[in-house]
């Protein structure tokens, strides 16, 4: 009886299992056929991951900065989905649109003279001109939409150039000063001295700009059928701070090089 029961269960379940397996097997070729069809129409889909190396930099070294002691690019990741439409019979030229989630950050220690800033002293903000050591810690997270024109050199190499638009989702610009003095209000104002063991913090998180745009230039080398190595240089035309913010007098522009890899579907 037990054997007969097992046989009955197998007889009723095996066809259903076989049907499910057949459906799953059919779904994979359908997906492959869809990708093949899109590829035949000139479409290409990529998933890219990389690291941003760079910083928020002025358009020249300010005279107030006398020495850069240390520079730390931090670990800035990026993840991007990208679609490319290749044109013409030879598929040399194309247009790409992407959606990227990325971070841009840096940490710098420097010696400055008469550097305009605003420090926190006894819970009050004091603006003036700082001479001495300054620590800068910058960190922003963006959703970025790049739009580029692509050129395929051969089956392995392609280059691209275009513009991007970014929306900041989070960010901070903070640090501290020590081992120096602040001239309150103006370069000849009251002198507030801080020793090497005394720190005064500053924080301009709420003064960061919300949106940014700029240009980018990149290239890609296809190492294998589906995998590629990518490089990209981007520069923002905007100052990282909002309009009307004058505490940091120099205009700081994100300049970053992204190095990473991609998977082509």
TrEMBL record:
Matching InterPro entries: Beta-barrel_OMP_2
Pfam families linked: OMP_b-brl_2 (PF13568)
Domain Outer membrane protein beta-barrel: 31-242
Highest taxon of the lineage: Bacteria
Signal peptide: 1-18
Keyword Signal on entry: yes
Keyword line: Signal
Protein name: Membrane protein
Phylogenetic lineage: Bacteria, Pseudomonadati, Bacteroidota, Bacteroidia, Bacteroidales
